[in-house]
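Example 3.2
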Amino acid sequence: MVGDPDAVGDAPGPDASATPAPLPDADRDAAALVDALREARERRADAEAAVAEHGAATLETVRDAVGRADRLLERYVDSATGTGDFQAYVEFQGEFAGIVEDLDEDTPGYGAFERANEAVDGRRLSESDFERAREALAPARDLADRLAEREDAAAAVHEAERAVERRLDALDERAADLERLVELGEADLTAPVEEIREPIAAYDDAVRDAFADFRREAPARELLGFVADAAATPFVDYAAPPPELVAFLADAPAGDEPVPDLLAYADYSASKLDHYVDDPGTFTARVRPHRTYLERLSADPLTVGWPPPSAETLRFQREELVSLVATFAPESVVARARALREAADHPEYERLRRAAEAEAELSDEEVERVASGAAAAELAAARARRAALAAALDDE
């Protein structure tokens, strides 16, 4: 089955008899993502303009002064009020006045610092004086907050852009699934696929049987040597044997044993294993860690499979298979490998292959969706949504 039929597209297809599942929010809110991105960029522009009004360096000075003032108010609110520590009271007033003295009179918010200083410039201070100083600093704090707002606005734009990019990736995947669905749905499902299925299935069955015999009977070092050679070819997808396992079996007597026996030995206790191999400790250290690899060795990489690959791929694959299979299989199997060329050269091969893919991958419901035009409508909707998101992302 190709993809999720309702992952994208909020417009109903021509097949009104089918009730689509609710669309996931991830695909339904593309318009909301565009709005969020636009709003985030507007917020960033406003924040940058607010900072530019006075300049970032000037606002940094204000922010630093506000921070110093807030720290003093917090530090001395207990010790410099009421009948507290007179020394603390003197220190506080001197340091607070110093903040104002360090500022130029044309610094934005300068008046706020003056009013705050006036609030705490008395013979005796109370907590309410400190609170009035904090309130007096509000205009300067608002100026300083413009820098934080610019940073937050930039972060909001970054997150909005990332959300759009993630949605674009999802829509790309969805569009690819829908394109595949439409392409397969247009295949000729009445095509006589057995004309290429029969020679491929005959070869695959024969090579599986031959490899099963090879795996069951051949010395492990010989089998792994074959797999190593096959792994070096581009069209036969074996994983190369672990080098330490190959090196051990190359010289150890255990290399004369077939793989099924080695796997059985790997489960033996040390005392029992001593009756079957010369060096149980080395055998266990070299073979047991690779038991899964040995268990999974099969003929699958030597098969063509169904649906088959493209004709060109099958031609290249066939050349490698003939050479490899001839090293362990009877001539009858090699002959079936050679016959794959005739299948690849079938004049209708690609049409038959496409029909085989459609038969294997599509459900009856998907075939109907293509036939009714619903799949094409979903594809158009996904492309339109993607275009809108891409345009919004590029529109700085």
